[in-house]
């Protein structure tokens, strides 16, 4: 999918709309992560993915052929630059929010793994027939932590 523009002004206007919509979606995802509600970000994934691919494709086209936009009105090009700056800022914000969520998740997994390991290492005693203390048989079970998950 590509932008079908009649001239440079139309192309820049469409790029502005694309950039602003993508910025809005990514900002909503960032808010979801910042408020510890990553499940709410999921509703934007499909549209964000489609628009991000279109944005990437159109950015490459413009970089390869600046003539596609250089004859557009100055105020439109300036508006596109501002929209792109806002987009970059939101991407940085989302990156920080996702990294924070990742750190929290990794911490939880690590804490759970430590608790499981400590439970398994605790003396295992039970009461058997006649009220005698029996050593509980140790059952081997593995837990794997992948630091690159």
Q: Could you provide a short overview of the structure?
A:
This protein is mainly alpha-helical and 149 residues long. The protein has five helices and two strands, in the order H-H-H-H-H-E-E.
What are the main properties of this structure?
149 residues, mainly alpha, two-stranded antiparallel ribbon, 5 helices, 2 strands
Characterise this structure.
It comes from Caulobacter vibrioides (strain ATCC 19089 / CIP 103742 / CB 15) (Caulobacter crescentus). This is Flagellar basal-body protein FlbY. One of its GO terms (cellular component) is bacterial-type flagellum basal body. Keywords: Bacterial flagellum. It is found in: Bacterial flagellum basal body. With about 150 residues, the protein is mostly helical. It has a domain at about 10-95. It has helices spanning about 10-35, 40, 45-65, 65-70, 75-120; strands at about 125, 135. The chain has a two-stranded antiparallel sheet. α1 (about 10-35) packs antiparallel against α3. The protein is rod-shaped and about 95 Å long. The two termini are about 30 Å apart. The model has no long low-confidence stretch (mean pLDDT about 85).
On the 0-100 scale, what is the average pLDDT? 85
Strand content: under 5%
* Backbone structural class: mainly alpha
The number of helical segments is: 5
Radius of gyration: 27 Å
Series of secondary-structure elements, N-terminal to C-terminal: HHHHHEE
Unreliable stretches, pLDDT < 50, 5 or more residues? none
Shape: rod-shaped
Distance between the termini: 32 Å
Helix content: 55-70%
Largest sheet: 2 strands, antiparallel
For the largest beta sheet, what order do the strands appear in spatially?
1-2
Number of strands: 2
Subunit structure: The basal body constitutes a major portion of the flagellar organelle and consists of five rings (E,L,P,S, and M) mounted on a central rod.
Subcellular location: Bacterial flagellum basal body
Keywords: Bacterial flagellum
Protein name: Flagellar basal-body protein FlbY
């Amino acid at each position: 999918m590509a932008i079908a523009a009649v001239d440079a002004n139309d192309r820049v206007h469409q790029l502005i709309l694309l950039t602003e919509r993508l910025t809005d979606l990514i900002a909503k995802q960032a808010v979801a992560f910042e408020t510890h509600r990553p499940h709410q970000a999921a509703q934007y994934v499909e549209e964000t993915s489609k628009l991000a691919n279109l944005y990437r494709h159109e950015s490459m086209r413009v970089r390869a052929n600046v003539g596609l936009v250089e004859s557009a009105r100055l105020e439109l090009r300036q508006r596109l630059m501002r929209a792109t700056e806002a987009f970059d800022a939101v991407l940085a914000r989302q990156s920080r929010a996702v990294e924070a969520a990742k750190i929290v998740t990794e911490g939880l997994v690590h804490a759970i793994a430590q608790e499981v390991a400590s439970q398994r290492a605790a003396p295992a005693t039970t009461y058997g027939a006649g009220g005698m203390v029996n050593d509980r048989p140790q059952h081997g079970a593995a837990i794997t932590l992948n630091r690159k998950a």
